[in-house]
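Renewal narrative, Specific Aim 1. Our central claim is that a sequence can be written position by position from structural information alone. The example that follows is taken directly from our test logs and has not been curated for this report. It begins with the structure tokens describing the chain, in the order in which they were read.
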């Protein structure tokens, strides 16, 4: 339950990238890399169809977004309207309003990009002159929130269009 009481084990699989949408839980099995879905009560557990492997997955507005280390893939939950976009080296991604925001990083800099909803064009949002710890990031309203630097417990924000300065969230 949301208040932390009456916890129930729904799956014994090694689950990652959990998304909840319309009474279903979607996740990547970290061992097999297949995407699974089940009802919120743990029933009707099975692999998502059409089958494909991924390292991460996000569900937003009836659309499943996945990344497998080489391609982003976007497919409606009913299996229709599949699109993909080639991009290697992505560390983490999130989805907001149909746009995919993702980070590519090395030891000297991190590049935050935005992939348009039609999966045809990307644009650069932000460049940090340091490695992004890729622990957490989210978008709320028009703000992109993320840890900046070694202290993963301090959150920073910047406008999702990359404008303005990075500021500490108090």
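The sequence written for that structure reads:
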């Amino acid at each position: 339950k949301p208040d932390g009481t009456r916890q129930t084990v729904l799956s014994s699989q090694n689950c990652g990238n959990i998304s909840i949408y319309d009474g279903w839980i979607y996740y990547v099995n970290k061992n097999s890399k297949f995407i699974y879905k089940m009802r919120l009560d743990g029933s009707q557990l099975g692999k998502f169809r059409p089958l494909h492997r991924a390292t991460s997955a996000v569900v937003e507005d009836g659309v499943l977004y996945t990344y497998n280390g080489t391609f982003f893939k976007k497919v409606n939950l009913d299996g229709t309207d599949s699109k993909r976009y080639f991009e290697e080296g992505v560390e983490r991604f999130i989805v907001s309003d149909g746009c995919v925001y993702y980070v590519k990083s090395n030891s000297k800099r991190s590049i935050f990009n935005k992939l348009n909803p039609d999966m045809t064009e990307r644009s650069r949002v932000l460049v940090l002159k340091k490695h992004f710890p890729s622990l957490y990031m989210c978008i709320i309203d028009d703000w992109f929130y993320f840890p900046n630097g070694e202290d993963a417990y301090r959150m920073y924000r910047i406008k999702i269009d990359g404008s303005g300065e990075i500021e500490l969230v108090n």
